[in-house]
Amino acid sequence: MYAIIRDRGREFKVSEGNVIKIDRIQVQEGDSIEFDEVLLYSGEEGMEVGQPLVSGASVTGEILGEAKSAKTVALKFRRRKDSRTKKGHRQKFTSIKITAISKP
User: Fold this and answer.
1) pTM
2) Cα separation of 63 and 94, whole Å?
3) What is d(CA 13, CA 27) in angstroms, rounded to the nearest whole number?
4) DSSP result, 26-48
5) For the residues of 62-82, what is the DSSP string, one character each?
6) What are the per-10-residue average pLDDT scores of the chain (104 residues)?
7) 63 vs 33: CA distance, rounded Å
8) What is the pLDDT of residue 104?
């Protein structure tokens, strides 16, 4: 059983027990979160594709915590000008463990 969900413009293929990383949200560790935007649901009775959403389907997850991704480096280099610029960025994300996929 799996589902494809949408969270703030990004799509994720999830099944029970998966851990996904979404953009950071302000929640406490251990809280529960529910995703109502289910684009595709595949279960025992077959696959159902939403137009655009599957009615009544939802995915529930548990917040594992926040962390930072690996550093992304942006480097500008201008030859023969003695000009270099190096900038780094670490995106914060929230880890979520999928606990249930349900459709009535």
Assistant:
1) 0.83
2) 7
3) 22
4) ---TT-EEEE--EEEEEETTEEE
5) EEEEEEE-PPEEEEEEETTTT
6) 95 96 95 96 92 94 96 96 96 97 89
7) 7
8) 80
